[in-house]
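Hi everyone, sorry if this is the wrong subforum. Our group has a chain we'd like a structural model of before ordering constructs, and none of us has done structure prediction before. Sequence below.
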Amino acid sequence: MSSFLEKQQNLFQKALSSASSKLSNKKTTGVGGGGAVTGSPSLAPPSPSPSIGSTTSRNDATPSGGAPKRKRQDVVYSQPEATGSGGEMGTQMVYALSYLRDRSQETKTLHDVLGHLSLLNRDDGYKERFVENLRRHPRVDFTPDESVTEQKWHVGTYRYRPVIPGVRDKATLLRFLQERTDSSGVQVKDLKDGWVDCEPALTELQGARKILVIRTKKEENPKHVFLDDPDLSSQVDAEFRTMWMRVAVPKVDELPRKLMAVGQKPASDEVNTGPKIPMKQKQQKKRAGRKMGRVTNTHMQDILKDFSGVKR
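Answer:
Right subforum, don't worry. Here is the predicted structure as tokens:
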């Protein structure tokens, strides 16, 4: 009995030793039967990532039992091809007009305008189109050069034409107001279109009583300008002002009664100082009842009765 157990134990130890030797050989043997590798066993290479085409085809595939999905369209956000400011002719005209308006007291040559707009390096065809648009603008005055015989596109001077032309100082403003056929005023914003710093001159002319200036209530900014005559201004005595301010003015409700007390008739006929008489209300007439015609069916008098006088 003991010999059988010993045989079984020996067979088990042999099988265990052979299995352990095989495991150690797998760990120490390299790829392709090369030399021993001390590191960890080589891992399997990662699976390749799916391409865009395969992902798209898989996403666009029709799901089982459902409707086909819409294809996703990628929106590309990009800027326009010409992103530089002032590339168009219209934009350059706006800049040129602003340049001339800020220097309305001066005349500028074409070289000055093109230099300010950085257009000196442009071709002559573009410059000729620019000059043509500039000369036709209603807010630009072009003066040809009299020293040359041939008026080419690059000669002459330019100046801003304001809303009120010719008014650029105190003398021209007074002359313009005196030449007007009516007594209407001038808006200050129209003056500033050609005369930007006109407010100090307006204050000086107002102090000399040559113009009348209407100002805003809060900021006291000039709004309208009218012609004034210093000969028409008169000084009121200070004593008379004091006496005038001492007079107590009655209230609006008491003024008609005080005028009638001294024998004066109020200017308004709507003033009524007597007692108010209440207005009579109109009485509504009672509606007459409906009259019945001739009764022919006398045998039904008990059934047919007149209910017109019965109120609801």
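For your construct planning: The two ends are 128 Å apart (CA to CA). Confidence is low (pLDDT under 50) at residues 30-45, 51-57, 76-86.
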